[in-house]
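Notes, p. 3: input format for complexes.
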Amino acid sequence: MRPFVSVTGLRKSYGAHRVLDGIDLTIAQGTVFSLLGPNGAGKTTTVQILSTLIKANAGEIRVAGHDLAKEPDKVRAAIGVTGQFSAVDSFLTGEENLRLMADLLHLGRAKGRTRARELLERFDLTDAARKPAATYSGGMRRRLDLAMTVVGTPRLIFLDEPTTGLDPRSRRTMWQIVRDLVRQDGVTIFLTTQYLEEADELADRIALLSQGRLVAEGSPGELKRMVPGGHVVVRFADPDGYRRAASHLRVTSRDEESLTVQIPGTGVSTLRELLERLDGQAIDVAELSVHTPDLDDVFLALTEESSR
Ligand SMILES: Nc1ncnc2c1ncn2[C@@H]1O[C@H](COP(=O)(O)OP(=O)(O)OP(=O)(O)O)[C@@H](O)[C@H]1O
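Output follows (308 residues plus adenosine-5'-triphosphate):
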């Protein structure tokens, strides 16, 4: 697939503080790319540079087929940004906000009205269309904000922490809207989020930023395979079983108080062998659970490694 965004050797410093230290990335058209990183890693700085708000010190950036340094206006015309600084005017209704945006984009009266109605429907805001945005819940406000970005039919949308503070239901509605934008409209999404679960749900590719460098990049599945977090936790029925098992098995950690041990690996053969051994020794198991690594494990392992 054709890259919609390509970045090579991106650097940015504030005085002596090197915030981005040589970033390379490509984002395919019609996909969701998520940039993850601990606080202060440089995510917002990256978004600000790619959305033409601030200038890089070095690097080549192409967005939507345009060189960002040479044709920032063409890049600006292809993108939309939504996030922490909402464009929503609380005194206006949802519909008025959308029509105002359509006016700003010179869509024309009739087209603006149709577009507003269409977006209210699509973003599940029709019932609240005539109410002032001040009365909206957090989730409705976020949806309106994104709808306002979509009025201009951007081909790339920067979504900065789109569901921070939302309840699980509103979060799911937002996720579905984002998926539809990608699937139905072919929009490319650049997502920053502090929820690893969100990146796991939405992103085709994830890049992990730590101290100004990308320390890992891949699909959620590929990233999970990079860390050996998978293990089985076994809780024994009695202290005798616990002690015998702990001395017979290759355990990575044990806890005498809760009578549990951790055994590395989650494969079927590992499990079969484990159960056969316990059975052979007549050791009673009270509970067994399989823990496959999630993005939290990856995030912690890789960002810790890079800060060492
Ligand atoms: N205008 C500025 N002047 C000086 N330093 C800055 C400026 N903007 C950002 N920084 C510094 O750059 C670093 C990266 O900041 P940035 O906001 O990009 O991080 P982030 O990954 O978005 O963090 P968070 O998750 O907390 O939003 C931080 O150490 C920050 O203090």
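The radius of gyration is 24 Å.
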